[in-house]
Design brief:
Elements lengths: L9 H4 L2 E4 L10 E5 L4 E2 L3 E2 L1 H10 L9 E5 L8 H11 L5 E4 L2 H15 L9 E5 L8 H11 L5 E6 L2 E7 L3
Parallel strand pairs: 1-7, 2-5, 5-6, 7-8
Antiparallel strand pairs: 3-4, 8-9
Helix pairs in contact: 4-5
């Protein structure tokens, strides 16, 4: 006599929608432009020398890249210098920020979240995926939670089989 068992996928039947922030990861290369190489004696920026560098530098090498602009030295760098770099990166770089790679990554996620149509999550029970191969900045988790708080029925963190409740709307 053959016994047939029906395996029921309770997670699939739960009505939970998984939201994976890692899917918003921009695939473009990340590079750091450190203005330290343009400093006079490692202390300050000289306008004439810097303008000459900016004029002759090959900005096309940043085409399609995500650029973090920093100064790794404790030096005097006027704001206009960063503005000049931004003006040269604009035609080529995909995206750029003043700050380290962490600031760049966070900014890329926040930009992607701003463009995300959230109507599809209205009244949904959502699980924000918590782990994966791509590191997602904590700021992105906070930002998506703030956005979903106003439209989702509930938000949980983790995996559908093991979640941590974040909030549940009271109807």
């Amino acid at each position: 006599m053959e016994i047939q068992e029906n395996i029921v996928n309770k997670v699939a039947l739960s009505g939970l929608v998984t939201f994976d922030l890692a899917e918003l990861h921009h695939a473009g290369e990340r590079v750091v432009y450190d203005i330290v190489d343009n400093l006079f004696q490692g202390l300050m920026l000289r306008e004439k020398d810097f303008r000459e560098f900016v004029k002759n530098h090959d900005w096309t090498q940043y085409t399609g890249k995500n650029v973090s602009v920093i100064c790794s030295a404790d030096a005097i760098v006027p704001t206009w210098a960063y503005m000049l770099i931004a003006s040269k990166l604009t035609p080529y770089a995909n995206f750029f920020v003043f700050g380290d790679l962490e600031v760049l990554e966070t900014s890329l996620y926040l930009l992607a979240l701003e463009k995300l149509p959230l109507e599809q999550y209205k009244d949904q029970r959502l699980v924000i995926k918590g782990c994966g191969d791509i590191a997602v900045p904590t700021a992105a988790y906070m930002a998506i939670t703030g956005k979903l708080n106003t439209i989702a029925k509930s938000v949980m963190y983790g995996e559908p089989c093991s979640t941590v409740p974040i909030f549940k709307r009271k109807d």
